[in-house]
Amino acid sequence: MTPMPDAVIEQEGMSYARAKELRIATYNLHGAVGIDGKFAPERIGAVLAEIDADIFALQEVPLGGSGSPDVLDMLQRMTNLHAVPGPTLDSPERRYGNAVLTRYPVRAVRTLDLSFGSREPRGALDADIDCGGEVWRVVATHLGLASSERRAQVEQVLQSFDTPALPVILLGDLNEWFVYGRTLRRLVTHFHRASALRTFPTRYPLFALDRIWVHPGERLMRVDVHRTRLSRIASDHYPLIAHIAHRTFTSSVQG
User: Distances in Å between the alpha carbon of 162 and those of 108, 112, 137, 156, 187?
Assistant: First the structure.
């Protein structure tokens, strides 16, 4: 059988080249305030359009309230993706925290309170997403600033994995400044070690604060930083993108 060119193989509106992988991104929006100090959700939406991921995990997202804009709603309307909020701060005046945007259906959603003592409220948004027939567990989080806080939060996240049959993606802003920090060493015991690419700050990236961890590890194809003129100013973090082998598609074309 002679293989057809990528450009002419279509599956549910996607080319063969795109359908054979899942594109997963994590992005700290910095409240949709760019490095120029301007609140500009439309710039964030334009960066998401540049990336065109299947799933976005977003941090520092304004989620509405009587005194706060709903940036997630704006981004949902710009992208036409499914939106799942995961507020860590939730009051009548202001809702703020994590969120997921996805082109695929969301089958279940859980939230995990990772708040530590009197420090800023933190959490994880834990969603089962049906990616073309294969369900992935996507855990989107933003960990704390103190090392003791991050260690406790990672232990709590790992203990919550009660569905080991599902492939898992853990991603977000881990706030781990040290390459060999205890938080990262603990995660390596459960996940494939992905490339640590520098995403912060966008003016001069020095730190790999944003991470994507995948299990099983052999599904991870590569990780990229999305560096463009627009993404440099839209937030103080660059987006990080993982390309993951789409098992449902590859198995459907075999035989």
Answer: 14, 13, 11, 12, 16
Look at the chain and report how many structural domains it folds into.
1
Q: Is residue 236 part of a domain?
A: yes
Half-sphere exposure of 252 (CA within 13 A, CB side): 11
Closest by CA position to 56, among listed 31, 24, 80, 34: 24
Mean pLDDT of 30-48: 98
**By percentage, how much of the chain surpasses pLDDT 70?**
85
Q: Can you give the pTM of this predicted structure?
A: 0.86
The CATH number of whichever domain residue 150 belongs to comes to 3.60.10.10
